[in-house]
From TrEMBL:
<dbReference type="InterPro" id="IPR039261">
    <property type="entry name" value="FNR_nucleotide-bd"/>
</dbReference>
<keyword id="KW-0285">Flavoprotein</keyword>
<dbReference type="InterPro" id="IPR001433">
    <property type="entry name" value="OxRdtase_FAD/NAD-bd"/>
</dbReference>
<dbReference type="InterPro" id="IPR001709">
    <property type="entry name" value="Flavoprot_Pyr_Nucl_cyt_Rdtase"/>
</dbReference>
<dbReference type="GO" id="GO:0050660">
    <property type="term" value="F:flavin adenine dinucleotide binding"/>
</dbReference>
<dbReference type="GO" id="GO:0005829">
    <property type="term" value="C:cytosol"/>
</dbReference>
<dbReference type="GO" id="GO:0030586">
    <property type="term" value="F:[methionine synthase] reductase (NADPH) activity"/>
</dbReference>
<protein>
    <recommendedName>
        <fullName>Oxidoreductase FAD/NAD(P)-binding domain-containing protein</fullName>
    </recommendedName>
</protein>
<dbReference type="Pfam" id="PF00175">
    <property type="entry name" value="NAD_binding_1"/>
</dbReference>
<dbReference type="GO" id="GO:0010181">
    <property type="term" value="F:FMN binding"/>
</dbReference>
<keyword id="KW-0274">FAD</keyword>
<feature type="domain" description="Oxidoreductase FAD/NAD(P)-binding">
    <location>
        <begin position="71"/>
        <end position="192"/>
    </location>
</feature>
<dbReference type="GO" id="GO:0009086">
    <property type="term" value="P:methionine biosynthetic process"/>
</dbReference>
<dbReference type="GO" id="GO:0050667">
    <property type="term" value="P:homocysteine metabolic process"/>
</dbReference>
Amino acid sequence: MTVVEEGVGGRKGLCSGWLNDITSIKYDQEISDQMKNMTLGEQCYHLKIPMYLRIRNAFSVPTDPSVSLIMISAGTGVAPFLGFLKYRADLKINADSIKLGYSWLFYGCRYKKRDFLYRSEIEDFVATGILNKLSVSFSRDFKQNEGDSQNNIKYVQDNIRKEKEQFVHQLLADNNVTFLCGDAKHMAKDVQRCIVCCISEIKGQDEKEAENIFKTLLKNGRYVQDVWL
């Protein structure tokens, strides 16, 4: 196992960095050397790593391929949606006549050249028609365009706002499920506020009514989140 470090501050990978920290308390060697020198017994009895089973939630691709999907993600939050799209691609390979629902991916990352994770795979899904629409934003590449608020796209919610008419139409369609995967503290809350605002504008309703529509989507499992702090 390699300890992943990146950036000026030497930020460690979440899992590999943690493993390195807990083993360095007991050993002075680098973790790669530690693992080479450990016996099976030492691994079993000296390093106790807590693991927990997670109860399955509703965050999974609909089994009905005709269901339309809106997928909203930031950073590594795009990973489960690669699984969603791969599942549909496999269905199409096995039964070319199968009808797939419309799919739309909103994806936000920092830099286009450095952080556009799974770019080639995502572009392949677009090229083959598995993914019908892709809306990407790059927050650190963002440059303010004076007098052009329509194209000031920094975060995923900016793309939602830009496409609000089509977005709300699909969001509220009977055969659509919207998924969000990302940071709970900022991204998920900002996207929710944006969606409520868009519903209010497009449907001509006040904020309270728009919030009730959004809560109904949540209650009925048509807006599903997998978020972390």
